[in-house]
Amino acid sequence: MPRMPLPLVFVFRSRAKEEKSQADKPVNFSKQPRDPQAPKGRPTPKRSEAQSQRRSVAHTPTTRKDASKRQREERRQALQKQREALAGGDERYLPARDKGPVRRFARDWVDSRFNVAEFFLPLAIVILVLSVVRVPSIQNIALLLWAVVIVLIVVDAAVSGFRLKKRLKERFPDGNTRGAVPYALMRSLQMRRLRLPKPQVKRGERP
């Protein structure tokens, strides 16, 4: 038996009902992408953490000019910390040549004693003043003083180097003490108040 075609009204009504029923169903948002700032299943970040994250994102350089400016600022801050460390002796920010317990011991050993070489500059001024005096006997005394000062500096440096090397072997038997003796001798050539890092021990104090 041939089937009768459905009336147009019924067809439109059925489609309208289906669309309405689908619209009435609750939408499942579980498959929608999560907000990266506040993901589900995790606790909400604290205000301080969120502010620090925003600051880090804001301070990230976006251009080459900003990056170079930030590098210059970081380099300036590092140099400032290094100068403060040289004045205060903070090991964290000292230059590489001054870091480590071996170099610190060498500095303290030199600073705890009198060194002939540290008086070279004032003695040199006195000798130069004597040498310009137009008196032959005084000029001869100035030349003799030059020779005496140079010999005393060489002898004192040799004795100091030998004693310091022995102390380093006793204090750091398994440590790397290479370069510590020349480092200490170069420090002994400077006047005490001009030495960097600043002396941390008094004269006569055993390091």
TrEMBL record:
<keyword id="KW-0812">Transmembrane</keyword>
<keyword id="KW-1133">Transmembrane helix</keyword>
<keyword id="KW-0472">Membrane</keyword>
<feature type="transmembrane region" description="Helical">
    <location>
        <begin position="141"/>
        <end position="162"/>
    </location>
</feature>
<feature type="transmembrane region" description="Helical">
    <location>
        <begin position="114"/>
        <end position="135"/>
    </location>
</feature>
<dbReference type="Pfam" id="PF11241">
    <property type="entry name" value="DUF3043"/>
</dbReference>
<dbReference type="InterPro" id="IPR021403">
    <property type="entry name" value="DUF3043"/>
</dbReference>
<feature type="compositionally biased region" description="Basic and acidic residues">
    <location>
        <begin position="63"/>
        <end position="94"/>
    </location>
</feature>
<feature type="region of interest" description="Disordered">
    <location>
        <begin position="14"/>
        <end position="94"/>
    </location>
</feature>
<protein>
    <submittedName>
        <fullName>DUF3043 domain-containing protein</fullName>
    </submittedName>
</protein>
<feature type="compositionally biased region" description="Polar residues">
    <location>
        <begin position="50"/>
        <end position="61"/>
    </location>
</feature>
